[in-house]
Amino acid sequence: MKTCLIVDDSRVVRKVAARIVRDLRFEVMEAGDGAEAMRMCRENMPDAVLLDWNMPVMNGLDFLRSLRREEGGARPLVVFCSIENDAEHINEALRCGADEFIMKPFDADILESKFAEVGLV
Amino acid sequence: MQEEVFNELADLALKSSGQAIPKSKSYLIEARLAPIARREGFGSMADLVHCLKSRANPIFAAEIAAALVSKDTWFFRDRDCLQRIVEDVLPKRLKASNTGRLKVWCAGGSTGQEAYSLAILLADEMPPALRGAKIDILSTDICKVVTEKARIGRFGHYEVQRGLSIRRLIKHFTRLETGQWEISEDLRSRVSFRQHNLLESAGGLGKFDVILCRNVLPSMAKPARKRVVESLAEQMMPGAMLLLGSGENLIGITDKLEPARDFRGGWVAAGTANAEASAA
Q: In what residue span(s) does the CheR-type methyltransferase domain sit (chain B) (predicted)?
């Protein structure tokens, strides 16, 4: 079973996303900020990361830059999931190594569509 | 929904667009007509039907009929099929036609995502064999409002996130102040839109190299399916192909078309599938 790390400081968003991602047959891990996510990746690199932008301690962009420098960090497919949905932010996320981008709010159809876009489902 | 009310609306759907709406799906009628009922201030579907029957207003009746047809669509729905049309079907048609021009019709194209997906593919991944060709894409729908929305090319938050990659969104769309995303003028110029009821003659639309009528026929009653398919067949140039949705077929509907040899979901004029395979 593939693994997906959901990184978001909102417990509600994590809960909603986790339910959808589990339905897509992923094993789900959760982190509340980028630093916690980084520690989890060093222990067990996931297949996919669903990543919020604005978070305390370490934001999504800093996490992504760090992840891509880690050994094995190029492998996870990273799908940003943010309310920052203008072209400038989206391009910045892509430049830093995001594979896809979901604009919040999202639903199961959107999440599945974006995971399909990068070959996760 | 009261039985009489359901029967009136289901009958209107059948007569005007060939839709067969079973009683078990009466919720579809309520969902599709709710915006009109709200706008007109009707307290119930019974009020709406009463208005339809008491006032002979063909424009209002046509609006109701069009609203009863499903609008569900998304970008790159059945991507493999669209890809093969661009990479395989169109180059073969171009080679066979020798005119340098190709015509594609998305019949029942709703808000335009299918037609725009083809335009995006042609813009991003134009096969060498199609370079220099003039490719006209027409999308039609029974609903005037939907056709107008498609022509304007503005899509909402949810619409642009179903089937469209973020890179294509950023490349081909601009975000407006309203939060909607507008498709580029270049892509809009590649597609034209017209209101058209598939039950009516399509003679005025001309002949086509490829006709897509995907996920439209299954909701229709069998006689309407036959009428639509045979009307579409009339608009196919010699050697043209009709593309249906996956799982749809025309067996028992018409003998004017037969399955294409090398294209699942593709239908060609009866008696030509073998000839086409040997020519290829």
A: 1-264
State mean pLDDT over B16-33. 94
Tell me which of B73, B117, B161, B167 to substitute to probe the interface with A (most A C-beta atoms closer than 10 Å): B161
What is the SS3 assignment for B272?
coil
Q: What domains sit in chain B, N to C, each tagged with a CATH number?
A: 3-67 (no CATH), 79-151+188-279 (3.40.50.150)
- What is the pLDDT, as a whole number, of residue B97? 85
Q: Check CB contact under 8 Å for B161 and A90.
A: no
- B162 to A101: CB separation less than 8 angstroms, yes or no: no
* B153 and B182 Cβ atoms separated by less than 8 Å: yes
**Identity of the residue in B161, B167, B175 whose CB atom sits nearest the CB atom of A113:** B161
* List of domains in chain A: 2-117 (3.40.50.2300)
**Beta strands across the sheet bearing A77-82:** A26-31, A2-7, A48-51, A77-82, A100-103
How does residue A116 score in pLDDT terms, banded at 50, 70 and 90? very high
Mean pLDDT of A71-90: 95
List of E strands, chain B: 101-107, 134-141, 154-155, 173-175, 181-183, 191-195, 208-213, 236-244, 257-259, 266-269
Q: Is the pLDDT of residue B277 over 70?
A: no
Q: Which of B207, B105, B210, B109 lies closest to B151, judged by CA?
A: B109
C-alpha B105/C-alpha A107 separation (Å) is 32
pLDDT at position B276, please? 58
Closest by CA position to A80, among listed A106, A113, A103: A103
Interface size, chain A vs chain B, as Cβ–Cβ contacts under 8 Å: 34
Res. B275 pLDDT band, cuts 50 70 90: low
The yes-or-no verdict on residue A119 having pLDDT over 70 is yes
Any residues with CB less than 8 A from the CB of B50 and at least 6 apart, and which?
none
Residue B139's Cβ-count burial label (10 Å; 0-12, 13-18, 19+) is buried
Q: CB–CB of A110 and B165 under 8 A?
A: no
